[in-house]
Each structure stands twice: as structure tokens, then as C-alpha cells.
Amino acid sequence: MRPLSIAFTFALLVGGAALADFDPVNWHDEELTAAGGPFRPYFFPDASGNPRIAVKSSTGGSSATLRLLTQGPPAWITGTDVSLPQNRHGVFVPAPGGGGYLVASRNNTSLMVAVFAADGSAKVDIAPLSPTDLTAVSASLDPSGVLHIGYVQDGTTLGYARRNGEGPNRWRVADVDEPIGDPVASTAIVALSTTSASVYFTVNSDLGRLDLWRARPVEVAGMLTVVHDTLSPLVKFADYVQAPICGTRGGGTERLYYMGSDGGDSWKLRRLQNGVGADLETQGTTVDCRGIHSAVPSDGRERIAWYDASGRVLHYLRPDTATDGPPYEAFHPLIVSGSQTHAELEGFMFTPDDVPCLLYRNGAGDDFVCFPRDSFDTDGNGRDDLLDIAFNSPVARLEVLPMGEAAPGLPFSADRFNVRFPTIGSASFDGTAVVSLSRNLRWEVEYSPDASMWEPADGVASYNLTATNGSMRTFTVVSENSAPGSLSKRFARVVVTRPEFPY
Questions:
Q1: Claim: this prediction has a pTM higher than 0.70
Q2: C-alpha–C-alpha distance, residues 201 and 215, integer Å
């Protein structure tokens, strides 16, 4: 038998949305070491929607530095540094086209907005108000790009402002704030139009619990007031909630996500949609919610992520049907180890390729970006990690075996291919490809005469157990018909995909 000169290649072919699973071992954590010292990170997508991270230096001193990290994931490099007078942390609102707004204060006594261009340069605009103790800042853009801001003064007074464009009348600040009386723990604003917004907030009631309320600022006789007793009164939605709340316009509607409980029993992640409540995920009696965030991939259906410090587990919720939920499926792609003193979820976004990225802080106060490994080479072995996952090895490869009379049911022929590749766990041949019986994986062998035009292998497959703790199997695929190309030049590859579970 003449020896064959065989070239074989590996490919990761994924059509449409990114596909993967939610096993924590198949997700990667990359620490933001390029950021330098203590900081607060925010996602700041570029003009194409690619992830960037704005890291703002910690509070203290007369000013702060904002550093832009680019070219990740997985690794990030240091980009532009900007000096800002905002020496308190706040909230970052990305804008279409790659810009954004950092809403934060200086010494808790001046509300400032750093307006960022797509290249990371910024100018600071100061709101025409003088709060004495500014806390619980939230902000969002309405469909027209007007920036709406909710905040608390002196711990108990709810305030509202909005910024429209760059002209001399760009600011509109509430003429009448709303004294709540009890301490306000958090706010979340949903910007509805250029002149309307819902300001949700949680209040430490005199009963020793947090309650959830909503205000809708309204203009009456030329006066903008946060609450109007008859035209726009306060609305109470829930007792027994936790402080993190997340307001969105997911699905083109007004939404709020929060952790609530009925009388202090089991905690539930809940969604208010246009004022109507729904339970999304039920937890136990011990829950410590540290951050709720949402993101929308290309299918337009909103995903929710939240972190439970009591169980050190991140919860990732995806609609279970073609609708925008409920019901939802809950997954747990991240488990944080160590003390939970500082741990929290800080951000959530999708790349243009629909890869989810989760920004979080661990118990030691270190910040990371967590994302699925599939389309990245996190171990530096020169191939995407999906191949390592599918082959259960960073080095295992497609093998070309000699053809001979021993091939089951086939005569000796140099025109046929005999290839072997490893799989992980139990799998079967479905007549076209090898499909995992326990994981979301599919292996398909293809042949080519020139490494350009590929066609599926016309083959049969059989199990062969290996010695890898009984968990790894190899598949041997033997072509039933003559393989394409000549005896001196043929190509084979195995294509690995995930047929289910878009993020």
C-alpha cells in the first residue's frame, strides 16, 4: 500500500448566534490586571459594540482617573487615561455609536456627567443643583438619547434630572424633590421618553424591611416635580425586597428586576413589566443579592444575571421559549470562591458575536471578566477552546489511520479514508455526525481534495473505549466511498459545533 501524504486541519464552525453551555469549567475568568490600583469598572462598548472597560480610580483625593481597557476579551490592554473631577463612584451609561456617560458626584455635593466620545475622550458637565449628600445615583437613556438621572439627597429625599443635548437649556432639574422620610437604599430609573421616566427606589421602612416604590416625575404649571399627589402619586409595589434593582426597556416595555419575598419567606427574582409582576426564579430563605444586570443579544430577548453572595453563585436567566419570557431557564456559569465581603456582579453585556461577558468582583476585591471559553484560546495552545472541550484534551487531534482488509465490511482500498478522533463522554453516530448524549456537542468529519472545498464524510462509526478513566471515547469514521483528491494530497477535518443552547 502506498503511503499517503495527509494534511488535516481543525475548524470551529458556528453559524448565527454563539453557541455554548453553562458548565463553569467551560467559562474563563480574566482578571483586570491592566487596570492598575483600586478602581470601579464599567462596560463601555466601542462603536461596533465590541467590549471595552472603563475603570475609574477609587474614591478619595480631589480628582479621579478613568482608564480605558481595550482589545479584550480575553486579555485587556491599557488605553486612554482621562482625569476627572468626579471623585465618587457612580453609574456608566453606554451610548449608541461608542460614546457614553459617567454620572457621578464630586464629594457627594455636585452632580456631574462626564460625556465620553467614542475614542474615550471626555468633557465634564455639571448639573445646576447643589445637593448636600448625593447617593443612590441611577441613570439611563431614553429612545431619543436624552439622559435621565435619579438620585437621593441627604439619604431620604428623591431627586430627578435630565440632560438633553449640548445647548444652553440642556438641563432640566426637578423644581420640587420628594421627601421620602425613611432612608432610601437604591434607585433604578427607566427612561421612557424625552419628558418622562419612572424612578424606582427601595426604602428602609420603620418595620425593619426594604419596600419597593415608584415615582414618575411630572410637569405641572411649568414646575417639574418628582411626585404629584393627584397627577402622579407614589406607587408601592412590594414589601420585603433587597436593595439591588435593575430597570430596563427590554422588549420595548418598562421593566424592573428585583429580589422580593412574600412576608419574608423564600426569596424570588421578580420582574415588573408595565407594573405587572411575575416570578422568574425561586430561591431559598437565605439570599444575599449583590447586583442585578440585564443584556440583550441579537435575538432581541433580554437575559438577566444576578449574583447571590450567600451561595457564591451567579445566576444567568434566559427565556425558555421563543418569547421574551417568562418562563426562564436558570444557569450557573460562575461560582466565586473565598470571602464574600466585596463580591458583586458589576456588569453584563454581549459582544457583536453574541458572546456574553460578565463583569464581577470577587471576595478579595479583585475584578474579573467571565465569558465562555469556546471561541477563545485561553490556554495558548493555538486552537479555540471548544476543541479542547470537545476532545477532553488540549493536545488530542484528528488521526488518520491506515486502511486495510481489517476495516469492518470493506475491502482493502487506498482510496478510502480511515480517521479517528476523541469525544467526551457518551455519544452516538446519527447517520451524519457524532452527537454527544450528555453534553451539547456535535462532531462531524469532512473531506477535501484541496483544503478549500469540503464535503461531509460518507462513513460509519464505532465506539472504542480509551483508558482515560472510562470517560473518553474515540470514534473511527471509515469512508464508504472513494475519498476526494489524489493519493498524494487529501485533507480531513473534524468540525465541532454546539447544536443547542444559544446564550
A1: yes
A2: 8
